[in-house]
Write a structure and sequence with these properties.
Elements lengths: L12 E6 L5 E2 L8 E2 L5 E2 L5 E4 L4 E4 L3 E13 L5 E9 L4 E12 L6 E12 L4 E8 L6 E12 L11 E6 L5 E2 L7 E3 L4 E3 L6 E5 L6 E9 L7 E8 L6 E7 L17 E7 L7 E10 L1
Antiparallel strand pairs: 1-4, 1-12, 2-12, 3-11, 5-6, 6-11, 7-10, 7-12, 8-9, 8-11, 13-22, 14-17, 15-16, 16-22, 17-21, 18-22, 19-20, 19-21
């Protein structure tokens, strides 16, 4: 049987299954598809909804999925028949013919067969994925004694990124003065120092799209604590700016406006107020979540 263990963090996957099922799937008419309605267990899932009560899995993230079905089937009392098995979506409205299998069963009750189906399919949000069967020969019933339907999304943008709290540190060497050809500044890996009064510093900020900023702080010497820092964003289409967070140097701000990073429409940066001679910046730290 095919299945998943819990432990993935952001890859959509889901599973439904049944074991030791005694209930036959009734074949009322030759060559007519009938849904497998005997699932009794929801397996591990993430960003997809297993629903054994309705015998399907619901897609919550669109994309390409690997779909896997494994089953042990038993013939009912009756004549031998050619059984056909297939994965369909949306209450049987769409055939997934690449996820398909045929199996001849002797009939008379008690003939076991194993079914395995695997394929890749493109799903949209809200699609339901089901297992179906039909008897192409007669109306002998079939029993899904054991069956598992599993799927996992393949085209994940960041399949190995764990969600949680992250940190961005910004070196003082990333800061530049507002008037670099005029201002007197000293720059190293560990410090940027104002060599005169009236120096304003700027640094770019690069965070992942969709990250949520929860705190920011700029660090410096005691003299710099009298000055302020600003975390700002600016639309790509114009030069306006909006302040997302601000505090004095060496003070953290956790009250963030426009906290979700939108790299599709904005750029981000840090700015200081006017620095005085011998004010030092040691760097900055931004705390964010994914």
């Amino acid at each position: 049987m095919v299945g998943f263990k819990a432990g993935f963090t952001n890859i959509p996957y889901a599973e439904i299954s049944a074991s030791d099922n005694p209930t036959e799937t009734a074949i009322g008419t030759i060559n007519v598809w009938v849904q497998c309605l005997i699932f009794d267990t929801n397996g591990p899932s993430n960003n997809a909804t297993p629903d054994h009560t309705n015998d399907h899995i619901t897609i919550l993230k669109s994309g390409k999925y690997l779909v896997m079905v494994s089953a042990s089937v038993l013939s009912g009392v009756g004549a031998a028949f050619d059984g056909e098995f297939e994965v369909k979506k949306n209450d049987g409205g769409t055939d997934l013919e690449n996820i398909h299998s045929d199996r001849d069963l002797i009939g008379g009750g008690g003939d076991h067969g194993s079914i395995s189906m695997t394929g890749i399919a493109d799903f949209s949000v809200g699609d339901t994925i089901e297992v179906w069967c039909r008897n192409k020969t007669n109306t002998t019933n079939v029993t899904f004694e054991d069956v598992t339907l599993s799927l996992i999304k393949l085209d994940n943008q960041f399949p190995f990124v764990e969600t949680g709290t992250r940190y961005l540190s910004i070196s003082p060497a990333a800061f530049i003065s507002q008037y670099p050809y005029v201002n007197n500044i000293i720059i190293s890996v560990s410090i940027i120092r104002a060599g005169a009064n009236g120096v304003v510093l700027h640094a770019p900020v690069s965070l992942p799209h969709g990250a949520v900023v929860i705190a920011c702080e700029v660090y410096g010497n005691a003299a710099a604590s009298a000055e302020e820092w600003y975390l700002r964003r600016s639309p790509l289409v114009d030069g306006s700016t909006v302040t997302m967070a601000t505090a004095n140097i060496n003070t953290e701000d956790t009250t963030i406006s426009y906290a979700t990073i939108d790299n599709a429409n904005y750029i981000y940066g840090l700015t200081t107020s006017s620095m005085d001679t011998n004010d030092d910046i040691y760097g900055a730290r931004i705390i964010y979540t994914i």
